[in-house]
Amino acid sequence: MFRDRTIAREIIKRLKAMELELRIMHVCGTHQDTIVRYGLDYLLKDCGIEVRQGPGCPVCVTTSLEFEKALRLAREGIIVTAFGDVYRVPSSTGSLASLRGEGFDTRIVYSIEDAVSLAKDTTKEVVFMGVGFETTAPTTASVLINDPPENFSVLSCHRYVPPALKALLEMGMEIDGLIEPGHVSTIIGIEPYEELSSEYNMPQVIAGFEPLDMLIAIYMLALQIRRGEAKVENEYERVVKREGNVKAKKLMAEVFEPVDVRWRGFPSIPSSGMSIKKEFEDWDASKKFEDILGDVADPGEPEGCICGEVLKGIADPTECPLFAQACTPDHPVGPCMVSVEGMCHIEYKYS
Amino acid sequence: MCLAVPGKIIEHSGNIAKVDFGDGTVRNVNTMLVDVKVGDYVLVHAGFAIEKVSREGAEETLKLLKQMLEE
Ligand code: SF4
User: Fold this and answer.
1) Residue A70 and residue A97 in contact, taking contact as beta carbons nearer than 8 Å
2) What angle do CA A212, A216, A222 make, to 5 degrees?
3) CB–CB contact B4 A112 (8 Å)
4) How large is the average pLDDT for residues A215-225?
5) What CATH number does residue B31 fall under?
6) I need a surface site. Which of A162, A290, A330, A339 has the fewest CB within 10 A?
C-alpha cells in the first residue's frame, strides 16, 4: 500500500502547485536507494525540491585509519571478521578482501553472532570490525553483555547519528529540512532530534523506505516549512515509536560511551563515536591489541577520491573524475563505491 | 547497512525465532532486542529483530495522509 501510484501522483501535483524552492537532506543510504531507483530525484527537481544525501552510510564514514587498523590486526595473524561491505573497502595498503588473497584469515559474516561462533571453534583470536549506526550497535552490545569467549573482541567503529546532524548544521549547511533515517530512529526514537528543531529551527520528518513513504515525508516537510514550523514528525509510525526501542537503547548505554571521533570528510565530531566501556575492555580490540595498533598511520583518503565531499553533501558522485572510469563497483577506489548505501554505488547502479 | 527486512515469526523459543521472509527464505533470528510472539511481523537487521511492525501504525500514517490530502 506504500507503493500506490495515484497517491504518489497526487502528492507530486500538490508539491508542484506549492511553487517551492527547497533543499532537503537525508542521511541514509537506503533512502538514497529508494530515491534514485524510483526516479524521485527527477520528479522532485521538477517541483523545485533538491534532495541530497549527507553522511548517512556507516561504511563510508568509517575512516581510512580505522580500516588500516583492521588490516594490521589481520596481518598479525588475527582472524578479522566484518560485514560484506566493510570487507571490500580499499584502504591504502589493501582491503580485508585483498588480504585474504595474500593468505591472511579475514572473513565475511552476516551477523556478529557468526563471528562469536567462529571464536568458539578456534583457539585463535577473532576480531569483529563493528561498523554501523544505532541500528547495528545494539546487536554488538547484546553480544558483549552475554559474556562472549575470551578470544573474541570488537574493533568498535560504531557511531551515533544525532551528533553528526548537529555538526552539519553547525557547519552552516544550507538546508531547509531533514528526512531522518527510519531504522536509526527505530532504535533511538524521536526525542534525540528535538534539539535540532528547537536550536536550529530545523523541520524534520522520520521516514520509511517505500517511495510513497518518502513522498509523504517530503510533503510533510513542505507543509511544515510553509507554515513556518520546525517540528519532528514521524511518517514511519508502523515501526518507529516515540521512545524508540527501549531495550536496545538500554543495552547500548550499558556497553558504549560517547567519544569524539572523526568521520570521513569531517573533522572530529564531539561525542559521535561509540567507545566500549571499561567494564567490557577485555573484549575491546583497541585495548586488547593496543601494542599492535599503537603505530598504525593514517593513510588519508584514497588518491583522487572525493568521498569526503560527497558525504558532506557538497559534491555529486559524477563530479569525481574517477567515477565510472577508474572507480566502479568491481574495482572501487573509495568506500562510497563499495557500499550498497554509498552514493557513488547507487548512482552507478541506476545510471 | 541500516537496511532491515520485514518477516513473520513462525517459531520462537528463548531468544531465537524462525522468521519467514515470504520469498521462501526462513532464517534464525535473535530476538533479544524485542518482545515478540509467533505470528508477529518484525524488522530484521544483521541477524537481529530490531522492532515489531505494527498494523495500527501503518493505518495511522494512511489516515494522516488522507487528512493531508483533504486539506
Ligand atoms: S567515484 Fe570512487 S573515487 Fe570517486 S568519490 Fe566515489 S568512491 Fe571515491
Assistant:
1) no
2) 145
3) no
4) 95
5) 2.30.30.140
6) A330
Distance CA A332, CA A327 (A): 5
Q: How confident is the model at residue A216 (pLDDT cuts 50, 70, 90)?
A: very high
Closest-CA distance, A239 to chain B, in angstroms, reads 5
Domain interval for residue B9: 5-70
Beta-strand runs (E) in A109-217: 126-132, 152-158, 177-181, 204-207
The bridge status of strand A232-234 relative to strand A204-207 is parallel
Residue to probe by mutation, ligand 1, list A301, A333, A338, most atoms within 8 Å of CB:
A333
Instruction: Give every CB contact of residue B11 below 8 A, 6+ residues apart in sequence.
Output: B17, B18, B38
- The share of chain A scoring above pLDDT 70, in percent, equals 99
Domain count, chain B: 1
Task: Tell me the ipTM for this assembly.
Answer: 0.89
Is A238–B1 a contact, with Cβ atoms under 8 angstroms apart?
A: no
Question: Averaged over A84-91, what is the pLDDT?
Answer: 95
Look at residue A309 and tell me whether its pLDDT is greater than 90.
yes
